[in-house]
Amino acid sequence: MQDERGRIIEARSLDGDCRLLKITAPLIAAQAKPGNFVMVRVSPSLDPILRRPFGILQSEPPHIWLYFQVRGRGTRLLGSLRSGDSLDILGPLGNTFPELAGNKTLLIAGGRGIVPLFHYAKTYAAQQQLFLLYGGRSAAELHLLEEIKAIPFAKTVIFSEDGSIGQKGLLTAGLEKIIAEQQPQATLSCGPEAMLARLVLMLKPVKTENYASLEALMGCGFGVCHSCVVLAADGSYRKVCDEGPVFPLEGIQWSN
Amino acid sequence: MVELSADLGFCTLKNPLIAASGTFGYGEEFLPFFDLNLLGALVMKGIFRKPRPGNPPPRLAETPAGLLNSIGLAGPGSEKLQETIRRLHAKTSTPIIVNVCGEDDNEFEEVAEVFSAMAEVAMLELNISCPNVKRGGACPAQNATHTGRLVKQVKDKISKPLIVKLSPNTADIVAVALAAQEAGADALSLVNTFLALAVDLEKRKPVFANTLAGLSGPAIKPLALKLVWEVCRQVRIPVIGMGGITSGRDVLDYILVGAAAVQIGTVNFCEPRAAVRIIGEIETEMDKLQIKNLSEIRGKLQA
User: Do residue B273 and residue A3 have CB atoms under 8 angstroms apart?
Assistant: First the structure.
């Protein structure tokens, strides 16, 4: 874990009020593994007081990439930074995707849930047979398609709710087909809670090993404040920051 | 060269900076960031007899330069914490303070006895002021009579110095402070978080399951400073001030109104090395102000 002063060397605005930042942060980049996240200080002032958690999209030392949508105050401040600006970054934090038994893995990404899965694919595409199911509201919110094309996925299926790109509908509509065709031994997913809650039901009859990367409101990011808890299947609270963000999909109590 | 030591009467800390309970985990989490021996002392996250799951999420909400929390004192229970303390003590010589909690007076007493018996523990802080345990934020520190009775009950059973942590959520904090002093408290720490409310406009419901939560951070500093000042003028035991400290100047503000030492809290979340920076800033500020020793300004507010 490093507390590093990063420097933005590329700040791209994308459709749907999304941003892609390329940041020089050599210490964090050298250690970052798929699944890890960072806590970013979005302002040098004490307002807002808390850092914000962001998944690491890609890490190629000395750079890391962050990809996010401007939603609230924190993302607005971070999204207004420009190339050349510096910012405090704490990371890499959290656990990583586990080593999987088989070598056929389906990645299921809802919207910005692509972030940790992209990192996973960039890292393991050469060693594993990877399939990608990627969905979002519309073409305007589905980014990184060129970058995804450059990753040797065995199969990529795109869904959009409005049909503006790929197949029309929720990505869960394509789940059964891709599983039947490709017979993955594991799934890794990240996306809205409703999607993950649906996945746990749909994947129940399938004998895959399933992991999800979770998002949570976080105070510190390193296990101290106990803010970012999720309710586990056994009824206990788990901290997303240092016990996650990657959990067995069935290990979480999803509110359906 | 300035002298940073802070005199608590019953002991002297190497500097006035103490990491506040609930914001510093169990100390170990900060080992990757800095040498804990740099701290004046550290306070463990509050502990009950048994493990506690804490409150349902969401557990925090931000407000300008502040933070509302409703963690609910999630923790591993006193047995587990004893192991953690032994492990931490082997890695640092910084005084370890245990923040003692209880659902009722007897639990406070029982937990205090357990940690008072540990050689690795320097002193206890009696957390009679957490607003997130009972619904509505009720706590013993809202009432002088209850505070006096509870402090005496605990003090009679322990051998370690006892700091009593006070709540700002009471009509007369000075009365509560005096009651704690009369009952045998060795020091006071104040303030715990301010009871506050956050609402969800869309759902027309409170943000937190417990309705009320505790507000901390720079937003509360002037409010906390006032209460520390008021208490310091009336008590003879040392006062540890806290509330929104993020800089060396903030620390000296608290010393000026009479605090013997301070605790830093919320800033630990956003800046894990804050303590190191702030200790450095205290020295720089003292140099600028031509103060050689904290006692030169302690309680010297001309008002």
Answer: yes
